[in-house]
């Protein structure tokens, strides 16, 4: 884990400039507000993350304004709205990890601290106090281990459904590929061949189409790794339509309720599950530390855990689905 240097050193120039600016702009206002913009509010993962952050903020007397980013341009406007409202901090789950750099720099100029959750900012000129996210690289490695198990160590052709706009998803695929490459080096007669890596847009319909297209080109497809549950469910739909759900093993990522239900039914083989509520809470906690001039980690990684059908059968949250 990496740590930033003491805040008084790292942000000395910012603090000196921001102190005067905050005094002039009424930073000591009675209303305490945190602006939160997540990738989308149509994905249960981000709803849970945002609500957990809101509840944690309330413990410290902060109101939370929550927006769904949906598009990079829309999220940029939301950040500008937060700046206009003179919020005390901004928490972002970026829709586009590079494009978000510009809006973050606008917040930097306005002396508003920015924290990222679930996915970081790849623009190194933008200043983010702390990034709290799943250990996506490690989660990708777990997904590969699940794929190897699903294929019974016999290898086969697989499809990856990616989403390159999100840093978190890039890391998942990178971790997945690392383990597959190591497996192939040790098992040359039972290799796992990645026959296609296609954009699934982290959603069902594009993932369904990408899977159907791959099945047409590779009817002997053996597995699909999808970077989240909606994408995995798109693959499931395509496999059902092609009557190949039993032939092709699907590995998802997230552990959303819809994903867990599909695992219970045997439609998805396994998920590295995430903990969005913990991400939301910890991100707010880093802001509170920052406010108290305490040392704040520049990055906090939260481990994933593999979740199989056996786990789903014992999961109390799925009792009504059994």
Concise account of the structure shown:
46% of the residues lie in helices and 19% in strands.
Q: End-to-end span in angstroms?
A: 40 Å
> Which oligomeric form is depicted?
single chain
Helix content: 40-55%
The tally of beta strands, per DSSP, is 12
Task: Supply the CATH architecture of the largest domain.
Answer: 3-Layer(aba) Sandwich
Instruction: Determine the CATH topology of the largest domain.
Output: Rossmann fold
What is the approximate shape?
elongated
Rounded mean pLDDT score: 91
* CATH homology-level superfamily of the largest domain: Response regulator
Major sheet: arrangement of strands: 2-1-3-4-5-11
The main sheet comes to: 6 strands, parallel
Keywords, separated by commas or semicolons:
322 residues; alpha/beta; Rossmann fold; 6-stranded parallel beta sheet; 4-stranded parallel beta sheet; 12 helices; 12 strands; 46% helix; elongated; disordered N terminus
Give structural notes.
The chain folds into two domains: 7-133 and 276-301, Response regulator (Rossmann fold, 3-Layer(aba) Sandwich), CATH 3.40.50; 136-274 and 308-321, Response regulator (Rossmann fold, 3-Layer(aba) Sandwich), CATH 3.40.50. The chain contains twelve helices and twelve strands. It is elongated. The protein is 46% helix and 19% strand. Mean pLDDT is 91; it is low at 1-16. The strands form three sheets. Strands 2-1-3-4-5-11 form a six-stranded parallel β-sheet, sandwiched between helices. Strands 7-6-8-9 form a four-stranded parallel β-sheet, sandwiched between helices. It is α/β, with parallel strands linked by helices.
């Amino acid at each position: 884990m990496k740590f930033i240097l003491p805040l008084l050193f790292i942000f000395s120039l910012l603090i000196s400039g921001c102190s005067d600016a905050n005094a002039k702009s009424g930073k000591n206002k009675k209303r305490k507000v945190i602006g939160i913009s997540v990738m989308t509010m149509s994905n249960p993962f981000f709803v849970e993350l945002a609500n957990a952050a809101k509840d944690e903020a309330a413990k410290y007397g902060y109101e939370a304004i929550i927006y769904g980013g949906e598009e990079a341009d829309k999220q940029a406007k939301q950040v500008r709205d937060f700046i206009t409202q003179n919020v005390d901090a901004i928490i972002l789950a970026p829709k586009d990890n590079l494009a978000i750099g510009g809006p973050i720099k606008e917040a930097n100029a306005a002396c508003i601290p920015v924290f990222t959750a679930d996915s970081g900012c790849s623009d190194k000129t933008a200043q983010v106090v702390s990034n709290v996210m799943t250990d996506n690289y490690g989660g990708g490695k777990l997904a590969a281990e699940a794929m190897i198990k699903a294929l019974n160590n016999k290898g086969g052709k697989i499809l990856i459904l990616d989403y390159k706009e999100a840093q978190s998803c890039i890391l998942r695929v990178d971790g997945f590929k690392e383990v597959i490459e190591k497996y192939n080096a040790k098992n040359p007669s039972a290799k796992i061949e990645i026959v296609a890596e296609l954009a699934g847009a982290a959603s069902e319909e594009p993932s369904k189409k990408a899977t159907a297209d791959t099945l047409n080109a590779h009817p002997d497809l053996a597995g699909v790794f999808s970077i989240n549950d909606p994408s995995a469910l798109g693959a499931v739909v395509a496999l059902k339509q092609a009557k190949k759900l039993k032939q092709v093993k699907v590995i998802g990522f997230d552990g959303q309720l819809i994903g867990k239900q599909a695992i219970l039914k045997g439609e998805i083989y396994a998920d590295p599950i995430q903990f969005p509520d913990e991400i939301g809470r910890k991100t707010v906690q880093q802001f509170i530390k920052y406010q108290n001039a305490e040392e704040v980690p520049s990055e906090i990684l939260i481990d994933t855990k593999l979740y199989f059908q056996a786990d789903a059968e014992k999961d109390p949250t799925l009792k009504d689905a059994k």
